[in-house]
C-alpha cells in the first residue's frame, strides 16, 4: 500500500466515518456532497459524525452551514473530523467561526505499524478475549464509564450494532484481570476492504486498572489476530495525550494528524 492510500485509509476509518454502514432505524449515512456524514437516533457526538470534507474554497462557509442545518433540524450534537484529506487547509478555523469547538483532549495522531511481527510485551495477568457484539452490549456500563467523552451505555449498544453490521470485517474484545470475573477493558478492530490493514479502534480501561499494561496487551492481541488474518500492517488513530505515546513505544510511527470538533445544539 502506497503512502497516499495509507493516509486515506487512516482518515476514512477514523470513527468509521468513511464506512457507509446502515443499521435500520439506528445509524445511516447522509447523502451530502463534499463530505462523508453519518446520522444516528442517538444524541451522542460519537455516532453523529462528519469528516473527509472536500469543499471548493469559495463555497466553504455555505457548505458548513448546510451541514450544521442538517443536524440542527434534528437537534443533534455532532462531531466533525478534520484530517489529512480534508480541504481547504483552514477548515478547522472555519468550523470554529461557525460555532464548532476544537476538542483539545481528543486530538489524534494517525499512526502505522508496518511490521506485524514486532514483539510487544504483555501483562501475563491480563487475558484478552475476542468476544461477540452481544458481550459488548452486556458490558455497556463498564465500557461507557471507562471511555468517557460522549460515551453512554446507549452509545455502546449502537457501536455493538455497528460492528455486528460489518460482519467478518469487525473484531471486538474484552480484557479480564485475575482478581475479578468481570471485564476491565475493551477494544475493537476492523479489517479494511483491501484486507491488508487492521484498524485498531477505540479502546479504554477501567480507571483502577490503568498503568498495568492492559492497553499494550490489547494491542498485542489485535496484532496477533491481524497477522493470522493475513494483514500486512496496522493503523490507529491515537489520542495525543493518552494512547499515542504508548503506541509510539510499541513501534507505531506517526504519519498524519486528525482533529475533532463538536457542535452542540442550543
Give a nutshell description of this structure.
By secondary structure, the chain is of the alpha+beta class. The chain has helices at 3-13, 60-73, 91-97, 133-138, 140-147, 153-165, 214-228, 243-249; strands spanning 27-30, 36-40, 49-51, 78-82, 101-102, 108-113, 126-131, 170-177, 185-191, 197-205, 233-239, 253-263.
Describe the structure.
By secondary structure, the protein is an alpha+beta fold. It folds into 2 domains: 3-109, no CATH class; 113-256, Gcn5-related N-acetyltransferase (GNAT) (Aminopeptidase, 3-Layer(aba) Sandwich), CATH 3.40.630. Helices cover 30% and strands 27% of the residues. The chain has helices at residues 3-13, 60-73, 91-97, 133-138, 140-147, 153-165, 214-228, 243-249; strands at residues 27-30, 36-40, 49-51, 78-82, 101-102, 108-113, 126-131, 170-177, 185-191, 197-205, 233-239, 253-263. Strands 1, 2, 3, 4, 5, 6, 7, 8, 9, 10, 11 and 12 form a 12-stranded mixed beta sheet that branches. Strand 1 and strand 2 (36-40) form a beta hairpin. Helix 5 (140-147) packs across helix 6 (153-165). It is globular and about 55 Å long. The model has no long low-confidence stretch (mean pLDDT 94).
Amino acid at each position: 500500500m502506497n503512502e497516499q492510500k495509507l493516509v486515506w485509509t487512516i482518515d476514512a476509518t477514523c470513527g468509521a466515518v468513511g464506512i457507509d454502514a446502515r443499521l435500520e432505524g439506528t445509524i445511516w449515512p447522509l447523502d451530502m456532497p463534499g463530505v462523508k456524514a453519518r446520522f444516528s437516533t442517538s444524541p451522542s457526538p460519537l455516532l453523529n459524525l462528519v469528516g473527509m470534507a472536500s469543499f471548493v474554497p469559495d463555497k466553504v462557509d455555505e457548505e458548513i452551514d448546510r451541514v450544521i442545518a442538517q443536524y440542527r433540524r434534528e437537534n443533534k450534537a455532532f462531531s466533525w473530523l478534520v484530517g489529512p484529506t480534508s480541504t481547504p487547509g483552514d477548515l478547522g478555523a472555519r468550523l470554529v467561526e461557525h460555532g464548532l469547538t476544537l476538542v483539545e483532549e481528543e486530538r489524534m495522531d494517525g499512526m502505522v505499524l508496518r511490521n506485524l511481527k514486532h514483539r510487544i510485551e504483555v501483562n501475563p495477568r491480563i487475558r484478552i478475549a475476542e468476544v461477540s457484539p452481544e458481550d459488548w452490549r452486556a458490558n455497556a456500563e463498564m465500557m461507557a464509564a471507562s471511555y468517557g467523552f460522549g460515551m453512554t451505555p446507549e452509545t455502546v449498544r449502537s457501536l455493538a450494532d455497528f460492528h455486528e453490521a460489518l460482519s467478518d470485517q469487525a473484531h471486538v474484545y474484552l480484557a479480564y484481570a485475575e482478581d475479578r470475573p468481570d471485564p476491565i477493558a475493551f477494544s475493537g478492530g476492523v479489517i479494511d476492504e483491501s484486507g491488508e490493514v487492521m484498524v485498531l479502534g477505540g479502546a479504554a480501561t477501567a480507571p483502577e486498572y490503568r498503568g498495568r499494561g492492559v492497553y499494550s496487551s490489547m494491542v498485542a492481541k489485535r496484532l496477533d489476530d491481524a497477522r493470522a488474518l493475513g494483514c500486512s500492517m496496522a493503523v490507529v488513530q491515537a489520542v495525543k495525550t493518552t494512547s499515542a505515546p504508548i503506541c509510539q513505544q510499541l513501534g507505531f510511527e506517526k504519519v498524519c494528524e486528525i482533529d475533532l470538533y463538536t457542535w452542540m445544539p442550543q
